[in-house]
Protein: ATP pyrophosphatase
Amino acid sequence: MARCRKCRQKKADVFIPHHRLPLCKEHFLEWFEEYLARTIKKFKMFSPEARILVAISGGKDSLVLWKALDNLGYHTEGLFVDLGIEDFSLISRRVAENFAEEIKRPLHVVSIKKESGLTIPDLKSRTKKYCSLCGSIKRYFFNRFARQNNFDVLVTGHNLDDEASSLLSNTINWQLKYLARKYPVLPEGNGFVRKAKPLCRFTAFEIKEYARLQKIEYLTERCPLSPEATRLVYAELMDELEEKMPGTKIRFYMDYLRKVYPIFNRQVEDFLDRPLTQCETCGEPAVSSPCFVCKLKAEAKG
Ligand code: FES
Ligand code: ZN
Ligand code: ZN
Structure:
Protein backbone atom coordinates (compact mmCIF):
# COMPACT_ATOMS: atom_id res chain seq x y z
CA MET A 1 0.00 0.00 0.00
CA ALA A 2 1.03 3.57 -0.60
CA ARG A 3 2.52 5.90 1.98
CA CYS A 4 0.36 7.99 4.32
CA ARG A 5 -0.73 11.23 2.61
CA LYS A 6 -0.32 13.18 5.87
CA CYS A 7 3.10 12.22 7.22
CA ARG A 8 4.49 10.82 3.96
CA GLN A 9 6.63 8.47 6.04
CA LYS A 10 4.63 5.61 7.45
CA LYS A 11 2.96 3.01 5.27
CA ALA A 12 -0.76 3.59 4.89
CA ASP A 13 -3.00 1.32 7.01
CA VAL A 14 -6.27 2.46 5.47
CA PHE A 15 -7.26 3.71 2.04
CA ILE A 16 -10.46 5.75 1.97
CA PRO A 17 -11.81 5.34 -1.57
CA HIS A 18 -14.19 8.28 -1.91
CA HIS A 19 -11.71 10.74 -0.40
CA ARG A 20 -8.85 8.99 -2.31
CA LEU A 21 -6.88 9.15 0.88
CA PRO A 22 -4.20 6.67 2.05
CA LEU A 23 -3.49 7.13 5.77
CA CYS A 24 -1.38 5.49 8.47
CA LYS A 25 -3.07 4.35 11.69
CA GLU A 26 -2.33 7.53 13.61
CA HIS A 27 -3.46 9.84 10.84
CA PHE A 28 -6.55 7.81 10.00
CA LEU A 29 -7.73 8.06 13.62
CA GLU A 30 -6.96 11.77 13.60
CA TRP A 31 -8.81 12.23 10.27
CA PHE A 32 -11.81 10.29 11.59
CA GLU A 33 -12.20 12.39 14.72
CA GLU A 34 -11.59 15.68 12.92
CA TYR A 35 -14.14 14.80 10.23
CA LEU A 36 -16.62 13.89 12.98
CA ALA A 37 -16.03 17.24 14.71
CA ARG A 38 -16.52 19.01 11.36
CA THR A 39 -19.77 17.12 10.69
CA ILE A 40 -21.13 18.09 14.13
CA LYS A 41 -20.24 21.73 13.42
CA LYS A 42 -21.47 21.75 9.82
CA PHE A 43 -24.95 20.61 10.79
CA LYS A 44 -24.97 22.53 14.11
CA MET A 45 -25.75 19.27 15.90
CA PHE A 46 -24.80 20.29 19.45
CA SER A 47 -22.45 22.54 21.40
CA PRO A 48 -19.18 21.43 23.04
CA GLU A 49 -20.85 21.65 26.47
CA ALA A 50 -23.93 19.56 25.55
CA ARG A 51 -24.92 16.55 27.68
CA ILE A 52 -25.11 13.78 25.10
CA LEU A 53 -26.99 10.49 25.39
CA VAL A 54 -25.63 7.86 22.99
CA ALA A 55 -28.07 5.15 21.88
CA ILE A 56 -26.05 1.96 22.34
CA SER A 57 -26.82 -1.34 20.64
CA GLY A 58 -23.47 -3.09 21.05
CA GLY A 59 -22.82 -2.96 17.28
CA LYS A 60 -19.89 -1.18 15.64
CA ASP A 61 -21.63 2.10 14.84
CA SER A 62 -22.84 3.00 18.32
CA LEU A 63 -19.59 1.97 20.03
CA VAL A 64 -17.39 3.80 17.51
CA LEU A 65 -19.54 6.91 17.86
CA TRP A 66 -19.27 6.77 21.65
CA LYS A 67 -15.49 6.27 21.58
CA ALA A 68 -14.84 9.07 19.07
CA LEU A 69 -17.11 11.56 20.90
CA ASP A 70 -15.40 10.68 24.16
CA ASN A 71 -11.97 11.21 22.57
CA LEU A 72 -13.12 14.60 21.32
CA GLY A 73 -13.89 15.54 24.94
CA TYR A 74 -17.69 15.55 24.79
CA HIS A 75 -19.77 14.75 27.87
CA THR A 76 -21.41 11.45 26.97
CA GLU A 77 -23.47 8.73 28.66
CA GLY A 78 -24.86 5.61 27.00
CA LEU A 79 -28.30 4.02 27.04
CA PHE A 80 -28.97 0.40 26.14
CA VAL A 81 -32.56 -0.72 25.64
CA ASP A 82 -32.92 -4.39 26.55
CA LEU A 83 -35.48 -5.89 24.18
CA GLY A 84 -35.59 -9.30 25.85
CA ILE A 85 -34.48 -11.18 22.72
CA GLU A 86 -32.92 -14.02 24.73
CA ASP A 87 -29.22 -14.66 24.00
CA PHE A 88 -28.96 -11.79 21.53
CA SER A 89 -30.01 -9.19 24.12
CA LEU A 90 -27.84 -10.77 26.82
CA ILE A 91 -24.73 -10.77 24.65
CA SER A 92 -25.28 -7.25 23.25
CA ARG A 93 -25.79 -5.95 26.77
CA ARG A 94 -22.58 -7.58 27.96
CA VAL A 95 -20.62 -6.13 25.02
CA ALA A 96 -22.05 -2.67 25.75
CA GLU A 97 -21.28 -2.93 29.48
CA ASN A 98 -17.69 -4.08 28.88
CA PHE A 99 -17.13 -1.19 26.51
CA ALA A 100 -18.59 1.38 28.93
CA GLU A 101 -16.26 0.08 31.63
CA GLU A 102 -13.33 0.37 29.28
CA ILE A 103 -13.96 4.01 28.42
CA LYS A 104 -15.14 4.70 31.98
CA ARG A 105 -18.44 6.27 31.02
CA PRO A 106 -21.85 5.47 32.55
CA LEU A 107 -24.16 3.08 30.70
CA HIS A 108 -27.84 3.09 31.60
CA VAL A 109 -30.10 0.14 30.82
CA VAL A 110 -33.85 0.18 30.27
CA SER A 111 -35.58 -3.20 30.05
CA ILE A 112 -38.76 -3.23 28.02
CA LYS A 113 -39.91 -6.31 29.93
CA LYS A 114 -39.74 -4.34 33.18
CA GLU A 115 -41.27 -1.23 31.62
CA SER A 116 -44.09 -2.75 29.61
CA GLY A 117 -44.38 -6.38 30.68
CA LEU A 118 -43.59 -7.55 27.14
CA THR A 119 -40.51 -8.61 25.17
CA ILE A 120 -39.98 -8.48 21.40
CA PRO A 121 -40.42 -12.28 21.10
CA ASP A 122 -43.82 -11.85 22.87
CA LEU A 123 -44.74 -9.23 20.27
CA LYS A 124 -43.59 -11.47 17.45
CA SER A 125 -46.11 -14.10 18.47
CA ARG A 126 -48.88 -11.48 18.28
CA THR A 127 -48.18 -9.35 15.23
CA LYS A 128 -46.33 -9.47 11.95
CA LYS A 129 -45.36 -5.84 12.39
CA TYR A 130 -43.20 -6.60 15.45
CA CYS A 131 -40.00 -5.36 13.79
CA SER A 132 -41.24 -1.85 13.03
CA LEU A 133 -42.97 -1.82 16.43
CA CYS A 134 -39.60 -2.71 17.91
CA GLY A 135 -38.08 0.36 16.22
CA SER A 136 -40.85 2.58 17.63
CA ILE A 137 -40.43 1.07 21.10
CA LYS A 138 -36.70 1.81 21.07
CA ARG A 139 -37.33 5.40 19.94
CA TYR A 140 -39.96 5.83 22.68
CA PHE A 141 -37.62 4.71 25.48
CA PHE A 142 -34.54 6.53 24.17
CA ASN A 143 -36.52 9.75 23.88
CA ARG A 144 -38.22 9.39 27.26
CA PHE A 145 -34.97 8.60 29.06
CA ALA A 146 -33.12 11.49 27.41
CA ARG A 147 -35.86 13.99 28.23
CA GLN A 148 -36.48 12.83 31.80
CA ASN A 149 -32.76 12.94 32.55
CA ASN A 150 -32.18 16.35 30.98
CA PHE A 151 -29.87 15.36 28.15
CA ASP A 152 -29.46 18.05 25.50
CA VAL A 153 -29.30 15.63 22.59
CA LEU A 154 -29.78 11.97 21.73
CA VAL A 155 -27.27 10.66 19.19
CA THR A 156 -27.55 7.47 17.14
CA GLY A 157 -24.97 5.58 15.08
CA HIS A 158 -26.67 5.80 11.65
CA ASN A 159 -23.94 5.86 9.01
CA LEU A 160 -23.78 6.96 5.37
CA ASP A 161 -24.67 3.48 4.10
CA ASP A 162 -27.82 3.47 6.27
CA GLU A 163 -28.80 6.99 5.26
CA ALA A 164 -28.17 6.53 1.53
CA SER A 165 -30.04 3.22 1.30
CA SER A 166 -33.02 4.45 3.31
CA LEU A 167 -33.06 7.61 1.16
CA LEU A 168 -33.20 5.40 -1.93
CA SER A 169 -36.03 3.37 -0.44
CA ASN A 170 -37.96 6.50 0.67
CA THR A 171 -37.54 8.00 -2.81
CA ILE A 172 -38.53 4.92 -4.77
CA ASN A 173 -41.62 4.57 -2.59
CA TRP A 174 -42.21 8.36 -2.41
CA GLN A 175 -42.47 8.32 1.36
CA LEU A 176 -42.72 12.09 1.63
CA LYS A 177 -43.25 12.06 5.37
CA TYR A 178 -39.91 10.34 5.90
CA LEU A 179 -38.17 12.51 3.31
CA ALA A 180 -39.40 15.64 5.06
CA ARG A 181 -37.69 14.56 8.25
CA LYS A 182 -34.57 13.07 6.71
CA TYR A 183 -31.96 15.39 8.14
CA PRO A 184 -28.97 14.53 10.36
CA VAL A 185 -30.23 16.76 13.15
CA LEU A 186 -33.81 17.26 14.30
CA PRO A 187 -34.60 20.01 16.80
CA GLU A 188 -36.25 19.41 20.17
CA GLY A 189 -39.92 20.25 20.74
CA ASN A 190 -43.35 18.75 21.43
CA GLY A 191 -41.93 16.32 23.98
CA PHE A 192 -39.11 15.18 21.68
CA VAL A 193 -35.46 15.72 22.55
CA ARG A 194 -33.01 16.95 19.96
CA LYS A 195 -31.69 14.09 17.82
CA ALA A 196 -28.52 13.85 15.76
CA LYS A 197 -26.68 11.37 13.55
CA PRO A 198 -23.01 12.44 13.76
CA LEU A 199 -21.77 9.46 11.68
CA CYS A 200 -24.00 10.34 8.71
CA ARG A 201 -21.00 11.12 6.46
CA PHE A 202 -18.99 7.99 7.37
CA THR A 203 -19.21 4.75 5.43
CA ALA A 204 -19.58 1.41 7.21
CA PHE A 205 -16.08 0.61 5.95
CA GLU A 206 -14.52 3.66 7.63
CA ILE A 207 -16.34 2.86 10.86
CA LYS A 208 -15.13 -0.74 10.79
CA GLU A 209 -11.57 0.48 10.23
CA TYR A 210 -11.82 2.87 13.18
CA ALA A 211 -13.12 0.00 15.34
CA ARG A 212 -10.29 -2.26 14.17
CA LEU A 213 -7.55 0.29 14.85
CA GLN A 214 -9.03 1.26 18.25
CA LYS A 215 -9.45 -2.45 19.10
CA ILE A 216 -13.13 -2.00 19.86
CA GLU A 217 -14.92 -5.29 20.47
CA TYR A 218 -18.39 -5.05 19.03
CA LEU A 219 -21.23 -7.39 18.24
CA THR A 220 -21.28 -8.54 14.63
CA GLU A 221 -24.44 -10.68 14.82
CA ARG A 222 -27.63 -9.13 13.59
CA CYS A 223 -30.87 -9.44 15.47
CA PRO A 224 -32.14 -12.99 14.87
CA LEU A 225 -35.74 -11.79 14.62
CA SER A 226 -35.32 -9.03 12.12
CA PRO A 227 -36.62 -9.98 8.65
CA GLU A 228 -34.90 -6.99 6.96
CA ALA A 229 -35.32 -8.49 3.51
CA THR A 230 -36.45 -5.32 1.71
CA ARG A 231 -34.01 -3.10 3.59
CA LEU A 232 -31.19 -5.32 2.38
CA VAL A 233 -32.29 -5.06 -1.26
CA TYR A 234 -31.83 -1.26 -1.17
CA ALA A 235 -28.53 -1.57 0.69
CA GLU A 236 -27.21 -4.02 -1.92
CA LEU A 237 -28.39 -1.80 -4.76
CA MET A 238 -26.58 1.18 -3.23
CA ASP A 239 -23.41 -0.91 -2.77
CA GLU A 240 -23.53 -1.93 -6.41
CA LEU A 241 -23.88 1.68 -7.56
CA GLU A 242 -21.04 2.71 -5.27
CA GLU A 243 -18.80 0.01 -6.66
CA LYS A 244 -19.43 1.06 -10.24
CA MET A 245 -19.38 4.78 -9.50
CA PRO A 246 -17.38 5.51 -6.31
CA GLY A 247 -18.74 8.50 -4.42
CA THR A 248 -22.37 7.83 -5.38
CA LYS A 249 -23.56 7.36 -1.79
CA ILE A 250 -22.11 10.57 -0.41
CA ARG A 251 -23.22 12.55 -3.49
CA PHE A 252 -26.74 11.16 -3.42
CA TYR A 253 -27.11 11.89 0.31
CA MET A 254 -25.38 15.29 0.48
CA ASP A 255 -27.11 16.56 -2.69
CA TYR A 256 -30.42 15.52 -1.19
CA LEU A 257 -29.66 17.51 1.97
CA ARG A 258 -28.49 20.54 -0.02
CA LYS A 259 -30.93 20.64 -2.91
CA VAL A 260 -34.07 18.70 -2.10
CA TYR A 261 -34.52 18.61 1.68
CA PRO A 262 -35.10 22.38 2.01
CA ILE A 263 -38.06 22.10 -0.37
CA PHE A 264 -39.62 19.19 1.49
CA ASN A 265 -38.89 20.66 4.86
CA ARG A 266 -40.56 23.99 4.14
CA GLN A 267 -43.76 22.08 3.58
CA VAL A 268 -43.22 19.60 6.37
CA GLU A 269 -46.52 20.47 8.09
CA ASP A 270 -48.45 19.49 4.97
CA PHE A 271 -46.80 16.14 4.90
CA LEU A 272 -47.53 15.30 8.52
CA ASP A 273 -51.07 14.09 8.08
CA ARG A 274 -51.64 13.33 11.75
CA PRO A 275 -50.60 16.04 14.22
CA LEU A 276 -49.12 14.77 17.47
CA THR A 277 -50.90 14.78 20.80
CA GLN A 278 -49.81 13.71 24.28
CA CYS A 279 -50.55 10.28 25.76
CA GLU A 280 -52.91 10.78 28.73
CA THR A 281 -51.42 7.81 30.56
CA CYS A 282 -47.65 8.29 30.26
CA GLY A 283 -47.39 11.87 28.99
CA GLU A 284 -45.20 10.99 25.99
CA PRO A 285 -45.81 12.49 22.54
CA ALA A 286 -48.09 10.18 20.54
CA VAL A 287 -50.28 10.06 17.45
CA SER A 288 -53.25 9.09 19.63
CA SER A 289 -53.93 8.54 23.32
CA PRO A 290 -53.21 6.13 24.93
CA CYS A 291 -49.92 5.73 23.06
CA PHE A 292 -48.87 2.40 21.57
CA VAL A 293 -46.59 1.56 24.53
CA CYS A 294 -49.40 2.14 27.03
CA LYS A 295 -51.71 -0.01 24.88
CA LEU A 296 -49.11 -2.79 24.89
CA LYS A 297 -48.76 -2.49 28.67
CA ALA A 298 -52.52 -2.80 29.11
CA GLU A 299 -52.58 -5.84 26.81
CA ALA A 300 -49.75 -7.47 28.74
CA LYS A 301 -51.66 -6.99 32.00
CA GLY A 302 -54.97 -8.12 30.57
FE1 FES B 1 -35.96 -5.13 16.81
FE2 FES B 1 -34.71 -7.25 16.12
S1 FES B 1 -33.88 -5.48 17.02
S2 FES B 1 -36.80 -6.91 15.95
ZN1 ZN C 1 0.70 9.25 8.70
ZN1 ZN D 1 -48.40 6.30 26.85
